[in-house]
Design goal:
transmembrane helix, 110 residues, transmembrane, elongated
Length: 110
């Protein structure tokens, strides 16, 4: 495997040192951590939606599995489900880091 796919132990340890101390946290740090993943997803998904469903809608229609297009209600529903899933996983990352800092779990590097 290439070195670009597998981070070294040193890279993992140095990135964990940059994690905010959750025992002495500022509420804004937690909010920012919970929002980074959904915002990044919404930006990337919006770009692809705009390209494939707005700009090149008729050019690529023969490649679609479903010939119909989603309604606005369906789009909003899909976005809300995606955001809620990402918030759950973001919260789990914060929980594991917090449990590590108070000594209830351990992160092993070997």
């Amino acid at each position: 495997m290439s070195k670009f796919f597998l981070p070294t132990i040193f890279q993992i340890e140095s990135s964990l040192n940059k994690v905010p101390d959750l025992l002495n946290f500022d509420k804004s740090e937690i909010i920012i951590t919970l929002l980074i993943v959904p915002i990044r997803f919404l930006i990337i998904a919006s770009i692809f939606y705009f390209i494939f469903y707005k700009i090149m809608k008729n050019k690529w229609i023969h490649l679609k599995i479903q010939t119909g297009f989603p309604t606005n209600t369906q789009l909003i529903s899909e976005i809300l489900y995606s955001v809620s899933t990402m918030l759950i996983f973001s919260f789990m990352v914060i929980l594991v880091l917090y449990l590590n800092q108070i000594g209830y779990t351990k992160i092993y590097f070997n």
